[in-house]
Amino acid sequence: MINKEIIVLGIRGVPAGHGGFETFAEYLCPFLIAKGWSVTVYCQEDGEGEMYESEWQGVKRIHIPVKNEGPLGTIIFDLKSVWHARKNKGLHLTLGYNTACFNIIQRLYGITNVINMDGIEWKRQKWGKVAKTWFWLNERFGCWFGNHLVADHPRIEDHLATRVSRDKITMIPYGGPDVSEANEAVLADYGLVKNEYAIIIARPEPENSILEVVEAFSAKPRSHKLVVLGKFLDSNPYHQQVLAAANNDVIFPGAIYEAEKVAALRFYARFYVHGHQVGGTNPSLVEGLAAGCAVIAHDNHFNRWVAGDGAFYFKDKAHLASFFEQQYLDDAFVTEKSNAAKQQFLNSFQWENILTQYETLLSKYLK
Q: For the chain, how long is the longest CA-to-CA vector?
């Protein structure tokens, strides 16, 4: 009988509390359990102490306390996880390649390991030379040590195909839940009115075009608002540059972690603004499409493949400023893009379809 057992590595744990991979695992694990799989997830805990186990929705969770914080803590956790998981000969699924050097352990112990290679992390502007070198090396290690690779975007697949045979790569995008309603009462907490604001939901980093969007919107007084979610620090020069560029029509509510509030702010926005310049299938863009948001997106091949006809694409600050003067206020244009965004989501990014593709791929490697 085939052993339908899988061990999930590379995330902080389930349920999700941090990023896109955790959210993906939160959907994938119960889906696989419903299909008769046995699922184990390694979870990072802050502090010291012994390793312990728990259960969540049928998922076996192995908790590993780590006293170190930040990237060092993650590296230590990943090493401890992979070393402990070597005892389990089930199929391994590693989400991300940031510590792929440790995946040589699976190779040495004859364990099949499928790796989701995420985006091209070493190209991101926010990293220094040391971090970029670390990510570049680990991308190579992931390509070498993984038995099979998953790319979440055709351009990521093309990039990985310069490292390994294309036969070793499967393209499966990120997914999202269909959103057809949200709590409109949330808007009052932020002084907002339905359809009279645009929203940015992204880390405030240069590669996400936050400054360009704020400058373009703030070029003159507006009849609408721009809402910029995220934590802006006094100690970060880029953050302070964004804040200084904003006029009175730009609102900075801070980082909002309540999913219901974020969903409502997104759902009732006139536009979701996606300034990401690099990456694969970005979860926040998929979530915007799922909510039926008309999208304003940076013009690059990553965003165009994901959003399709559901977005207006801007090339630079001047192009975006012109858009805010014209199409932004055109209700018919907004409706057209909103409908196209929703259809793009329904055609390509529903979780049921995405997770089925994953199970089909993973089943090929069962023993």
A: 68
Task: Give CA angle at 304 (280, 95), nearest 5°.
Answer: 15
Query: Do 173 and 153 contact (CB within 8 A), yes or no?
Result: yes
Q: Measured between alpha carbons, how far is 120 from 141 in angstroms, rounded to an integer?
A: 14
Which token pair is 74? 């993650």
pLDDT tens digits, 203-246: 999 999 999 999 999 999 999 999 999 999 999 999 999 999 99
Closest CA to 290 of 208, 210, 201, 360: 201
Burial of 191 by CB count in 10 Å (0-12 exposed, 13-18 middle, 19+ buried)?
exposed
| Helix/strand/coil percentages in the chain, nearest 5 | 45, 20, 35
Amino acid identity of residue 162, one-letter, is: T
Q: Which residues pair with 38 in a beta bridge?
A: 5
Three-state secondary structure call for residue 362: helix
Strand order in the sheet with 311-314: 250-254, 225-229, 197-201, 271-274, 294-298, 311-314
User: How far are the Cα atoms of 98, 102, 229, 312 from residue 139, in angstroms, in the given order?
Assistant: 7, 12, 31, 32
Which pLDDT value is given to residue 237?
A: 96
The tokens for 78 are 């990943």
Tens-place pLDDT, residues 239-282? 999 999 999 999 999 999 898 999 999 999 999 999 999 889 99
CB atoms within 10 A of CB 105: 17
Query: 248 φ, ψ to 5°?
Result: -70, -10
Q: What is the pLDDT of residues 115-159, one digit of tens each?
A: 999 888 887 777 889 999 999 999 999 999 999 999 999 999 999
- Which residue type does 260 have? E
Distance CA 2, CA 255 (A): 46
CB-CB contact of 62 with 42 (8 Å) = yes
Compute the distance between CA of residue 241 and CA of residue 36 in angstroms, rounded to an integer. 52
Quick one: 333 exposed, middle or buried, by C-beta within 10 A (0-12, 13-18, 19+)? middle
